[in-house]
Amino acid sequence: MVEFEEAKRLITVGRIPQLRLALILLDSAVELILYGLAEYALRAERFEFTTLNQMKAAVKRGKVRAWRTRSTGSRRG
Question: Which of 16, 31, 40, 60 makes a 20 to 30 Å CA pair with 72?
Fold first, then answer.
């Protein structure tokens, strides 16, 4: 990433203002990386949630049999 290269250059200067800018650039780069990871992780969860809602709607319409939940686990009803 460009931010890392520029932060590296600023750190080699070694003066306080450049070190502060390097810190800001590194913080921004890490934030972008974490955002991408979180988005990737939540995309799968969102898919499962959407699928669950679609299954519940199908059960309400009578298209599929409902699953009953018991204390020992799930069984078809």
Answer: 60
User: What's the domain count of the chain?
Assistant: 1
Query: 77 CB contacts (<8 Å, ≥6 apart)?
Result: 65, 66, 67, 68
- Output the pTM of the full model: 0.55
In a domain, 50, yes or no: yes
- Residues with Cβ within 8 Å of 64's Cβ and at least 6 positions away in sequence, in order, are 55, 58
Q: Which domain holds residue 28?
A: 2-60
Q: Is 36 helix (H, G, I), strand (E, B) or coil?
A: helix
